[in-house]
C-alpha cells in the first residue's frame, strides 16, 4: 500500500512538467493579452520538449525547442507586431467566458475521443504490444534519428508522411494568414 505514495524520479519529473504544461496551455487560451499568450506558448513548447527528453527522444526535444519554441513563436510575435494592436487593452477578443466554456466542452470531447481511440476502439493498436516489444512487426533501431526517418518515410512499417505534410501546410497557412492580416490593416 505504501508503494502508491512513492514514485521514481522520472515519474515525479513527468508530473511536474505535465502540470506546468497544462497550466501554461490554459494561460495561452485564457490570457486576454495576446502577447502574453504567445509568451506562454514558449513555456508550452519547452515543457513538451521536456516530455520528449523523458521519453529518450533527444532529437525531437531539440527540434521542439529550435523549431517551435524558437522559430514558430518568433513568427507569431512578428505577426503580432505587424498587426497594429498598440493602445488596445484587450488584444484577444475571443477570450470571453462563453467562448472559454465552449472551448472547454470541445476540448473535453476531443480528449474523450482520443482516449476512446487509444483504448476501446477496434483500431486502438495496429499490432499487439508484445509483438512491437519483441520487434516482430517493425523493428526500430536504437538511434533516434534513424527511427524518425523510418517512421516518416518507411513504406513497409508505419508511415507518417501525410500528417507531416499536413503540418507543413498548416504552418504555411499560418504564415499567409499573418501576411493577409498585416496587409488588411494598412
Automatic annotation (TrEMBL):
Coiled-coil blocks: none
EC number assigned by the record: 7.1.1.-
Mode of membrane association: Multi-pass membrane protein
GO cellular component, one term: plasma membrane
Location relative to the cell: Cell membrane
Keyword Magnesium: no
UniProt GO molecular function: NADH dehydrogenase (ubiquinone) activity; quinone binding
Catalytic activity: a quinone + NADH + 5 H(+)(in) = a quinol + NAD(+) + 4 H(+)(out)
Gene3D superfamilies: NADH-ubiquinone/plastoquinone oxidoreductase chain 6, subunit NuoJ
Alphabetic keyword roster: Cell membrane, Membrane, NAD, Quinone, Transmembrane, Transmembrane helix
Enzyme kind, highest EC tier: translocase
The keyword Cell membrane is annotated on this UniProt entry: yes
Transmembrane segments: 12-30, 37-55, 61-86, 98-118, 160-181
Record-linked Pfam families: Oxidored_q3
Main location: membrane
PANTHER family, per the entry: NADH-UBIQUINONE OXIDOREDUCTASE CHAIN 6 (PTHR33269)
Family, similarity comment: Belongs to the complex I subunit 6 family.
Protein role: NDH-1 shuttles electrons from NADH, via FMN and iron-sulfur (Fe-S) centers, to quinones in the respiratory chain. Couples the redox reaction to proton translocation (for every two electrons transferred, four hydrogen ions are translocated across the cytoplasmic membrane), and thus conserves the redox energy in a proton gradient.
Protein name: NADH-quinone oxidoreductase subunit J
Organism: Thermogemmatispora tikiterensis
